[in-house]
């Protein structure tokens, strides 16, 4: 199985290996999911409070296109 790659918010190709040595919360979501969108501000606050060299919230949309 190969490495799963995705684009970050700036269009840069990334993989989970880019977050090695960090604690990562990986959230898989889709734009049409209302509860998914409602949860995002909470994870944004978590990232703002704890994000840095040791912690990262990764939001990965599964929408196509």
TrEMBL record:
A GO molecular function annotation here is: oxidoreductase activity
Cross-referenced InterPro entries: AhpC/TSA, Thioredoxin-like_sf, Thioredoxin_ResA/DsbE_sf
The UniProt entry, under Pfam families, shows:
AhpC-TSA (PF00578)
SUPFAM superfamilies for the chain: Thioredoxin-like (SSF52833)
Q: What is this protein called?
A: Thiol:disulfide oxidoreductase TlpA
Q: From which organism does this entry originate?
A: Metapseudomonas furukawaii
Task: Specify the taxonomic lineage.
Answer: Bacteria, Pseudomonadati, Pseudomonadota, Gammaproteobacteria, Pseudomonadales
